[in-house]
Amino acid sequence: MHQLNFQRGKVFITTIMAHGRSKKRAEHESLVLQALQGISKKKWKSPAQAAKALEICYQTIARRLKGGKSIAQSREAAQLLTIPEEKALVGSIIHLTMTGYPATHAFIRELAEEI
To answer: How far apart are CA 94 and CA 100, in angstroms?
Structure first.
């Protein structure tokens, strides 16, 4: 679920997780992305250094550096919409709500079926 935040004329999307496990996975994915960015920007010399600094598993970082998928990416085949389609749907909903159009559940379902 996503929440819109407006600050200084800009729109920010905040992801709200419904379950504790989902929140923990999102936080873990954020740390993995920080590690990958840190390695690419030479903040850390190796996956082991990044893993130690961020207190996450070295093997996860090494796997992702070799092109491994995140949990969300690996489960994409089982979903009705792909990740890019989900992002397009969220963008459409944001556009609708910003223009004052009510994004009802029925309309969102219809929009998702069109995508």
So the answer is: 10
Three-state SS sequence of the chain: CEEEEEECCEEEEEECCCCHHHHHHHHHHHHHHHHHHHHHCCCCCCHHHHHHHHCCCHHHHHHHHCCCCCHHHHCHHHCCCCHHHHHHHHHHHHHHHHCCCCCCHHHHHHHHHHC
pTM across the whole model: 0.55
Domain ranges of the chain: 1-74, 79-115
Angle at 102 between CA 99 and CA 104, to 5 degrees: 145
Task: Give the pLDDT band (50/70/90) at residue 13.
Answer: low
In this predicted model, what pLDDT tens digit does every residue of 32-57 receive, in sequence order? 989 999 999 999 999 999 999 999 99
Q: Which two tokens stand for residue 97?
A: 């709500």
What tens digit of pLDDT does each residue of 55-102 get?
999 999 999 999 888 877 787 778 788 888 888 998 999 998 889 888
